[in-house]
Amino acid sequence: MAEAHQAVAFQFTITPEGIDLQLSYQALNQIYLSGVRSWKKRVSRMKNRVIKGVYPASPSSWLFVAIAILATMYMQSDPSMGLISKIQQHLPLRYTCGLHMSLSAQGQTMLSALVFSTLLWLSLILTLRLCLKLLLSYHRWMFELHGKVSNTTKVWSLLRLFSRRKPLLYSYQTSLPHLPVPAIKDTLSRYLESVRPLLTDQELKRMTDLANDFESTLGNRLQRYLKLKALWATNYVSDWWEEYIYLRGRGPIMVNSNYYGMDFLYVTPTTVQAARAGNTITALLLYRRKVNKEELTPSRVPGTDIPLCAAQCERMFNTTRTPGAETDVLQHWLDSDFVVVYHRGRYFRLWVYRGGRLLSPRELEHQIQSILDDPSPPFPGEEKLGALTAGDRCPWAQMRKQFFSSGVNRRSLDAIERAAFFVTLDDEEQGMKGDDPAGNLDRYAKSLLHGKCYDRWFDKSFSIVIYKNGKNGLNAEHSWADAPTVAHLWEYTLATDAFHLGYTQDGHCKGEVERSLPPPQRLAWDIPPEAQVCRSLAVAQALAADVDCHVFPFREFGKGRIKKCRVSPDAFIQISLQLAHYRDRGGFCLTYEASMTRLFREGRTETVRSCSSESCTFVKALEGREVISLIKIQTSKPGEPGCEMKLMVTFVSSQVADDGYGVSYIIVGEDMINFHVSSKYSCSETDSRRFGVQLRKALQDIMALLSGDPKGSSKGSAQVQPK
C-alpha cells in the first residue's frame, strides 16, 4: 500500500501532548503542480474562445482598425461621419460612483475613437462570418461536371481566402450551415425510388398508395413539428439519432454497435508488449493534448478547403456510456490524469502525469511492465466483470444500481468510467502471421471486435488492445462519434508511435525513467455472486460465436487504376457489391451505405441507397453480356467513406440485418483496398468467405469491362459504349 501513503499530503496523530501534524512536502508539491496544470488549461481554453469568437479575423486585427481610425483623424478627417462625436456625447465620463472624473477634450475624443473602432471591428467580424456561412451553405459545387464550372461556383471559390489564416479545431463551427429539412414530397419520392427495384408492380402500387396517404394525413403534421425543431435546434436530427439509434438500444453493444481498428498489417514496430503499450498510450495522450488546445487542423472534404464539423472530437476522451433502465447516458469529463489497464482479470489505475508533466514513453513502459510482472490474483468476481458491458443493457443497469452505487465497487467503477481511455494487455498473439495468414487475419478481426467478451470495457469511448507479440488494435463505442473521427485518431496514433516516438534497437521505448514513480494502483472489488456476471457473459459469448467475419486485402488494383477509367472509386466498389450479392444470393436487397453529413453543424450520417433501378439494370446487363452504357450509373463519392491511409488498416463491423452481409472497406494508397465482410453463422444463406470470393470476381469483372479487356473477366466479354 505504498502508493496509498504517497497519496496522502499530510498525516496527524492525536496525543496527550496535542496534535502531531506531519506534512508530506512531496505530495503537496504534486498537488501544486497539478493545480498549475489545471489553470494553464483554463487559460488556454479562454484564449481559444477569444480566437474562435473573432474568426476569420484575428484579435490583433482590432489594433489595425484602431490605428487606421486614429491615423485618419490625425489627418483632420472624420472616418465615422459624425458617429465619434455622438459617442463622445453619450460616454459616462463626468461622474462614476459619486466621484467627479474629468478627461481632457483630446482624451475624450481618443476614447470615443477607440469605442468606434471596436464597434466597427465587431461589425466587420460579423460581416465576414456571415459571408463565410453563406459560402459554406453553397453545395452545388459537388454536382458540377469536370471542365464545366458555373460562374456561381467560381465566385464560391473565394472560400479559399478565408482559409489562409490557420484555424483552430472548432473555428468553423458557428459558421457551418444547419442541416435543412427536406420537403416531405421529396422524401417520399426518394423512398419509393429506393424500393422500386425490390418490389413487384403490385407491391409498388400499394406502397405508393400508402405513401400518398401518409403525406396527406400524419406526414404533414410531423413535418411541421420537424420544421419547428429545426428553427431552434443546432441540428434537428443528431440528438434523436444519438438517442434512438444508439442509446435506447437494449441489446448488447458489443458486435452490434461497437467497431474496431487494426494495426499495420505487414509491419510491427516492436514485439515488446510493454513498449508498444507505452508508445501507444503516449501517442493517444499527445492527440488529446492537441484536441484540448484545438491545435488540430479541422478535417476537410478531400482535395478542397471545405471544413467538416469537428463536434465529434469533443467527447473523444474521458467519456463513458453508462447503462440505464430505458436509455443509456453518455458521460464526459473535462480531464483525466490516468488510464485504466486490464491484465489477466485485474484492473489497474495507471497515472500518466507526474509533477504536472506527461510521463515519457519509457516511464509508461516501465509502469506497464510492472503490471505484467504483478503475480497477484484477481479478486473474486473481478476477472469477468467486463462481461456486464458486453451483454444486454437492462441487466447491466440493474446490477450497476444494485451493486456499484456505493463503497469500494463505486470507487473502482468510477475510476474506469473517468479514465481517459481503457487499455487491455492481451495475453494472446495476433496478426497476419504463420502458415495461415488469411485465417489469422480473420481471428485478429474477431479478437478486436469482441475479444473474450469480458476483457474489454465496451462502454468506454474507445479501448486499445496490446497483444503479447506487440500487435495492437482499437475497439470503439459508436454513439459518441462515427468511424472517420476515430480513424483519424488511430492514424495519428500509429504514425506517431512508429515514426515520431520510435524505439531503441532492442525494441524498447526511448527516454529515461524516474525511479521514484509510484506503482500502478490495483482497483479493489467486492463482487457478490448474485451480480449476474455469468448471465451477461453467456449472452455475449453466444453473440460472439455467431459472428462470421472475413477480412482480406484486395491488391489486384486500387483507386489509381479506377480513376484512370474516369469512375468514382466509391461508385465502383458499390456496384461491385451489388454484382457480388446478385451472384451470391440470386437477387437484390435493400442496401445501406453510410454517408456523413458533417458539411453541416453537428452532422452525423445519412443513408445512401446504392441498390437502385440503374444499378440493377447494370448488373442484369452484365450477367446477360448485353451492350450497356456505364454513364447511367454515374454517382458521386459521398464525402469520406473512410480515411485514405497508406500504411494502416481500419475495418469496422457494419452488419445491420441478421440474414444479410455487412461490408466495410478502406482505400489504402493507390493500389490496394481492404475489405471486411461479416455475417452470422446462424443464417444458412450467408457465408462471409463465399461472399468475399464473389466480391473479388465482381471487382475484376467490372474493371475488365471498363478497360475493354475481356480476358480479365471471369464471366466472359461485355461490350461498352461510353457516352
TrEMBL record:
Membrane topology classification: Multi-pass membrane protein
Pfam families named among the record's database cross-references: Carn_acyltransf, CPT_N
Pathway as given in its UniProt record: Lipid metabolism; fatty acid beta-oxidation
Molecular function in Gene Ontology: carnitine O-palmitoyltransferase activity
Active site: H478
Protein localization: Mitochondrion outer membrane
Family, as annotated: Belongs to the carnitine/choline acetyltransferase family.
Name of the protein described by the UniProt record: carnitine O-palmitoyltransferase
